[in-house]
Design a protein that fits this description.
homodimer; 510 residues; alpha+beta; BirA Bifunctional Protein, domain 2; Rossmann fold; five-stranded mixed β-sheet; 38% helix
Chain lengths: 510, 510
């Protein structure tokens, strides 16, 4: 198990099973050293980097997924479900050196398969297989990476990705603007205070060219610039000069450009005011896009949520246009308050990779017009967003911790009375059934004769009690009572036929 | 790929990669025989026995899962989510000879893992790891079996299971009755006409004993009896005598008993009327359970949905009490109408296995009080139900086929007018945004200047159109129109500020 604690090594050939005589020898050794000869007890745990989810956590997670799904559907998103494993060759060559993190299935005869590493490659494979030219698809599903887990920081080997992508040929920036509108709607529904940092690959590349960065150094310099949200400019500059071999003059020019940010209009004006920049063809094309985007975000009323930040680069090579990262403002403020700047940023390889590992970044994406072409004959331009749901879950959980319920049941049906001998079980069943038929969530003690106080305890954090007594039932009545700890409510007697209506009223008030 | 077409063989050791010189030789051969020297194009498909889900199918599947989830939550069920793979040793020894169908992950260093084969073992592992004594948990998730797929018949290698189980010590038959109540609620919500066949393992075993079946033949004879829903009695009898070595006299006695079915009360009375049967201790204990169950199902008003059928045996060894199968009545009628009785039933190994492969059976389960004890020190009695959701999906799909929508969007925002030159894009965006903010699902053409008819086509089966014109907008109005094919509706002009309200009214009428 020691090998588990180091960074995963590249896949090594699976060793053949030990020959029988070696196995026998091992068994003999075990006996001689007085190890127990019975098979060791099975260790009860989930595999490394995975966990079970239950109770209060699941309530928060379901709320999160439901909120996001509602917004996706509101915008015409259709769910796509793909198998958890793909043919190995579908994933081959898509993730660079991170391919070593892919989980392979054992060769048990038949096809060689691997667990999906993200949701983008399966989507691209599906697009290439099907005849859809235009599609808004979303997928919320688990992906698998043999990475070093850090569960406390929300880094798992099995974790959810939550992607919305618009594929197809449309007029410029219309889908891009809708993606940003979706981001704002999701974050407002989750009550998260965010800023969306924007940039445009063509503008960024043009800017490097104008500054004098050689073509073959644009991607490495871009990667260095991308660290500006974690490192001081002086350190980034040092990396550019010492590690990437840029001259100090060019590095300073790059620094001058990329440290600019502001509203879309401000940054567009800043670039236009520079004759060198505004003469570059890539930059011209990018500015056209950004001007359209500004108008469209205005129509959606979300223009104040974005910042056009020339230092945003995103790690991935395949972005071709608009790129964005969603920043959780309180998290950034908190991080800034803590002692600043140390700690490297983890790898950003893999599309829309790991926003959760970046301070404050809880969603990210961009336009990638050439990726789908890798899988088939047709090229389908795409723009998308991936929500870092494990990170968002951590934020929601921290916020909810105090009064988070562990049950979603609304009513507990109890029996009380003078005669402890009669638990009124059939009557409790019938009343619970009355509530179920009205789609009200209800439980009762699964004892024939439960004790009174035990029923209160079993009710847990269920907010409403319906209390049955023999005399009240004979009079066609039941007692309704708020069960919260601080309630002095003695309850009210109501006609049994009004129970559903009265419970609904009470629930609406809670 | 030929090996894929035979029944999966037991797992074989993974062959080590071919030595480099062998690989090189193979490449050389390929060149010499004029095979293309470029790597072969990747085959775009999902792995055998799996498929993507999208569009109309997903709408039906989400409706199915949501309906079941609602009922589960109404009864206090809590969702449990477990990893898609478990430590290999957790699954070891749990599935008998079907273990060969388990998918293993490749050994890439670290722990050895396998994909889950069902949801019961992960649940039992979770119960053994945690301190919960009583729990109603549900899980709707995919499981994996390297079985021979038959996708047309709904048999996949990756498929959903949908389990609700109540674990813990409660008074007799109270959880069992609630499970059956849940079944009826789910089936009513899905508008499926069902019967629940019931039996009790103690009664069945007692009955075999009284008939004279030797103790070591009870399970094999039970398995033969279980085929009575597919085979004629004469054939089952033949199997008992010729294959299982029962005497004709004992076989006839078994046949006399197990061919009885009726209401719970009728079958209880039938057994009580037989002095031999009612003297057996197992049968006495079973009759007590069935009498309680009858009373509880009466309180839930579902007693008319069940049939106490002494031929129901269920394949699994570990059931200890009540067992049940849910029969889709129209499917049974259809099968009876077709030429009768041929075709063997597929294996029933594995807990709550494969109800979809049995004619008409769409859910199944029972009480298993000793299973959890296998994984830990504590024994936790359980009772549960597994819905055959792939089979139920097939039924729902066949029913829905005619008018099933492929989109869930409610409103399409369009622009028309005299001036083809102006597509009113910003206005369409603003109106769509107005609808989104009100949680109404809306789309519009992602073109700056879409043509009028093209917009109608793009609307597809979206039921409501909002039509913008320059003059109307200037007057603060928009046109609302039903878009269904047979609609003669010319639409109505409404004030734009009433749009949300009017759309909601129209949606409520559709």
């Amino acid at each position: 198990m020691a090998s588990e604690d180091s960074t995963p090594a590249p896949p090594t050939p699976v060793p053949a099973p030990a020959p029988l005589e070696v196995q026998a020898a091992a068994t003999k050794d075990a006996k001689e050293t007085k190890l127990p000869s019975r098979p060791a007890a099975v260790v009860l745990k989930t595999p490394k980097g995975t966990q079970d989810w239950f109770g209060a956590d699941m309530i928060i997670r379901e709320h999160l997924f439901q909120t996001i799904t509602n917004v996706f559907k509101r915008h015409g998103g259709s769910p796509l479900e793909t198998p958890v494993f793909e043919l190995k060759e579908i994933l081959a060559g898509k993730y660079g050196e991170d391919s070593r993190l892919i989980y392979d299935l054992q060769d048990q005869g038949g096809e060689l398969c691997s667990l999906r590493y993200d949701l983008t490659v399966p989507f691209a494979r599906w697009l290439a297989m099907n005849s859809k030219d235009r599609i808004k698809r979303y997928q919320i599903a688990k992906v698998y990476r043999r990475d070093q887990p850090a569960i406390a920081r929300g880094r798992f080997r099995e974790f959810y990705q939550c992607d919305f992508d618009i594929a197809g040929v449309y007029d410029a920036m219309i889908p891009d603007a809708e993606i940003l509108c979706i981001v704002v709607e999701v974050m407002e529904a989750l009550k998260l205070d965010i800023t969306i940092k924007l940039n445009h690959r063509k503008i960024l590349d043009g800017l490097f060219t104008v500054a004098g960065v050689p073509a073959d150094k644009i991607r490495p310099i871009s990667a260095a610039v991308d660290k500006l949200d974690k490192m001081a400019w002086a350190d980034v500059k040092k990396e550019m000069i010492e590690e990437k071999g840029l001259s100090e003059e060019i590095a300073d020019k790059v620094g001058e450009y990329v440290q600019h940010s502001g509203t879309i209009q401000e940054t567009v004006d800043y670039i236009k005011a520079d004759a060198n920049l505004s003469a570059n063809d890539d930059i011209k094309a990018g500015l056209e896009d950004m001007t359209l985007l500004n108008a469209y975000l205005g129509a959606y009323g979300v223009v104040d949520k974005v910042s056009f930040d020339l230092s945003l680069a995103r790690g991935l090579d395949y972005y071709t246009g608009l790129i964005y990262e969603v920043i959780n403002k309180p998290a950034v403020a908190e991080a800034a308050a803590a002692a600043g700047g140390k700690g490297g940023k983890s790898s950003r390889k893999g599309k829309k990779e790991d926003p959760a590992s970046q301070v404050g970044s809880i969603a990210a994406g961009g336009r990638y017009d050439n990726l789908v072409g890798m899988y088939g004959k047709r090229t389908i331009p795409c723009v998308g967003i991936s929500f870092g749901v494990e990170r968002i879950f951590t934020i929601l959980k921290a916020r909810a911790e105090k009064d988070q319920r562990t049950s979603e049941v609304d009513v507990y049906v109890m029996a009380f009375g003078n005669k402890e001998s009669d638990g009124l079980l059939l009557e409790r069943m019938a009343v619970a059934n009355q509530l179920w038929k009205a789609d009200i969530r209800a439980e009762f003690s699964a004892k024939v004769k439960p004790r009174g106080l035990a029923q209160y305890k079993s009710a847990g954090d269920i907010p409403i009690g319906v209390i049955l007594g023999e005399d009240e039932l004979a009079a066609g009545q039941v007692r309704l009572k708020v069960l919260t700890a601080d309630s002095k409510d003695q309850g009210q007697l109501i006609p049994r036929e009004n129970l559903v209506e009265e419970v609904r009223k009470l629930l609406a008030q809670l």
